[in-house]
């Protein structure tokens, strides 16, 4: 706490910033932001002791508020990465306008994310909002795997916005069309019991396997045995799992939302379908699984696209430049 109180002028300036970063609301909002301020004082002491010269936050929500205030207390630059979509849906609650104005730079992981961030800042601060996508280490993924031609894969949290229920319905439709499709579901979450019941109700118990949560090696192994990655989300940012699948040579069927079209080129590296439309998703599944040559060619194009555009080392260097120099342009 000593760092915060050692400079009264900076302490008052940080209190003023905390008030500006507080959304309108009842007394409980004041109490919550008072807690954030106390947390910021603790973090400021840590930053000061470690000699940190730049504070970066990777979420932009409550932790972004604490990081911003702590950096102000210490007198060092602050920046943040906005992944979305939750932070954009609650932009007024997390006062993205104040954070973007105060930050040295704001990094978005997709062009779609940048467009959404720009809706919450003044034109005079728009130059500080840049795009640096997430990336992968391409060399870790191989395509020389034996595949069955019928294995679908989902990887993600089992929550409503991931749209797994839409995928289960689409799988039932595809099998009714004579497609011998199977589905591996990798992930955990509160929708697990509901999805189990839906699988049973649709008579898919022999064709759907819930794999639970897997580490990086487990996910890579699942991709090595899959033929198609399916991302039926109702909202998204820029899913790294799509990059991983493409690097593994898999075509991708995904919802045409948010940052996904920046990764999946419709009819080139996979298919884009309307979110929540199980019938359109089923049609895409049937088309791809019934045409293995098409699936292979899409997978090859996707692998090339990821190699050219989504390299983790390149993204890391770009982020490092942000820390050192601040934002100067849209980097990707």
Automatic annotation (TrEMBL):
UniProt keyword annotation of Glycosyltransferase present: yes
Enzyme Commission no: 2.4.-.-
Record keywords: Glycosyltransferase, Transferase
This protein's record includes keyword Glycosyltransferase: yes
Superkingdom of origin: Bacteria
InterPro entries: Glycosyltransferase_grp1
Pfam families (UniProt xref): Glyco_trans_1_4
An annotated Gene Ontology molecular function: glycosyltransferase activity
Protein name from the UniProt record: Glycosyltransferase family 4 protein
Organism (species): Seohaeicola nanhaiensis
Organism lineage: Bacteria, Pseudomonadati, Pseudomonadota, Alphaproteobacteria, Rhodobacterales
């Amino acid at each position: 706490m000593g760092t915060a109180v050692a400079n009264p002028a900076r302490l008052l300036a940080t209190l003023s910033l905390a008030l500006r970063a507080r959304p309108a609301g009842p007394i409980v909002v004041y109490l919550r932001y008072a807690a954030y301020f106390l947390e910021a004082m603790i973090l400021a002491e840590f930053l000061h002791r470690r000699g940190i010269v730049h504070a970066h936050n990777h979420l932009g929500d409550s932790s972004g508020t604490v990081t911003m205030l702590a950096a102000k207390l210490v007198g060092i630059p602050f920046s943040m990465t906005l992944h979305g979509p939750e932070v954009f849906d609650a932009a007024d609650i997390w006062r993205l306008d104040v954070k973007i104005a105060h930050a040295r730079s704001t990094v978005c992981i997709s062009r779609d994310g940048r467009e959404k961030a720009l809706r919450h800042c003044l034109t005079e601060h728009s130059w500080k909002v840049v795009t640096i996508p997430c990336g992968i280490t391409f060399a870790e993924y191989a395509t020389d795997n034996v595949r069955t031609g019928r294995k679908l894969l989902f990887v993600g949290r089992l929550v409503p916005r991931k749209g797994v229920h839409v995928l289960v319905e689409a799988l039932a439709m595809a099998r009714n069309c004579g497609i011998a499709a199977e589905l591996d579901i990798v992930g955990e979450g509160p929708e697990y019991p509901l999805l189990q019941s839906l699988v049973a109700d649709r008579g898919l118990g022999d064709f759907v396997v819930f794999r639970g949560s897997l580490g990086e090696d487990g996910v890579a192994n699942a991709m090595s045995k899959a033929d198609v990655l399916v991302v039926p989300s109702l909202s998204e940012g820029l899913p790294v799992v799509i990059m991983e699948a493409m690097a593994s040579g898999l075509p991708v069927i995904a919802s045409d939302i948010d940052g996904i079209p920046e990764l999946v080129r419709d009819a080139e590296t996979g298919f884009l379908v309307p979110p929540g439309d199980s019938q359109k998703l089923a049609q895409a599944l049937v088309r791809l699984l019934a045409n293995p040559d098409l699936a292979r060619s899409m997978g090859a194009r996707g692998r090339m696209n990821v190699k050219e555009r989504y390299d983790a080392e390149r993204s890391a260097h770009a982020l490092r430049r942000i820390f050192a120099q601040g934002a100067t342009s849209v980097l990707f």
